[in-house]
Amino acid sequence: MKLSNEIISSIARTYQYISRIDIQADYFEEINNRDTEHLKFTKSGKLSESNEKVCRQYVAEEYQEAFFKFVDLKTLPERMKNEETLVLEYRMKDGDWHRLRFVEKKRDENGVLTHVLCLIRSISDTKKWEHELMYQVEEARKAAALKARFLSNMSHDIRTPMNGIIGTLNLANRYPDDLEVQRKCREQIMTSSKYLVSIVNDILDMNKLESGGVVEQEIPFNLAELLNRVNLGKQKQAAEKNVEYIVDWEQSDIRHMDLAGNPIYVERLLTNISDNAVKFTGPGGSVRVWCAEKYADEERVVYEFGCADTGIGMSETFLEHAFEPFTQENETSRSRYEGTGLGLAIAKKIVDRLDGDIAIESKKGVGTTVTMTLPFKIGEPVEKEKNVNYEEIPVEGLRALLAEDNELNMEIAKFMLEDYGIHVECAADGEEAVQKFKNLSWDITM
Prior knowledge:
CATH architecture of the largest domain: 2-Layer Sandwich
Order of helices and strands: HEEEHHHEEEHHEHEEHEEHHHEEEHEH
Helix content: 40-55%
CATH superfamily of the largest domain: Histidine kinase-like ATPase, C-terminal domain
Number of helices: 13
Structural class: alpha+beta
């Protein structure tokens, strides 16, 4: 008797509820219940009736059918014919997870099961850990797939302009005396080089945003000047494609022009969105951008920025993935429209960092509208820079110490400085530059 009590006490520490069941009599009797708040069972009685009440009242609907089948005493002896225990995990309506276990207690002379123990324990913490582990595994799988897609896309996107540069250089070498060919080759090389730089900038920006490298800043800036810079560049880009670029706001509409925030990333955000609009709009189409003040008090102002185009648009299915990195609706877009597929992903990250909102409406073959809402602190007027003509500042005859660890970059920088008549002394790194500075007799008043 003492040994039985010790066994029951040991099991009771593991399970919140224990009862014994007479299968043939359809009868149960509670032995121990440490959680009467959640396991509101009667002490004893007809098991089938108790199961019906418990299941309908407490077990989550999607698990009720499995629960009924598991506790069916008519089939239990057959199900446990060669088993000493059976287990079922199910969720309650209150969100708690339970594990119910039947354990063999007694069989008759023919080996037919007649009595079992019913053991119930809460496994919510275990389930939470399992779900977290599954989530981490899924995130790791997504990260691996994203990395593979990144490498595939980048190898394509980088190789294309590099091949263009190499091919153009070969063409220029074949016609060294043809000035028109040389001019066209230089333009093509410059275009491909700028595209390469934009790819690198996108990757660096995405990495910085993913790693939390963007810190909250309150830099004073003038919103009208920022918008003019963005739109001036996009108007030129649109004109080259015969796309109408409509700026649908007046400077008088911006009541609070002097703001405080992160102008670098605000400009990057608006540039990315308008760049996408121009890129995916064909000749004869239009892009309309606007800015509107939505709310303002003594300290804060909220602006809505919008960009609507009549471009190729996106399907409803793709819209769900529009903000995912390296996504374009189909692979042919990667060849027809230059880009890393990071534009909208970067925009979403920036908006999130700036505590704003971004929304997209699009229809295939009709166009896309992107709306962004951003909050700013109202700042003080920004003092405008004085117009200085740096070309009029005399630099010929000055001396410069150039530290650069890349041989090609050093050669280019040295050439540019010497082109202005500057005497250049080169150093391969900072340490060499410091030593040369110490050893040289410099007239630092120059």
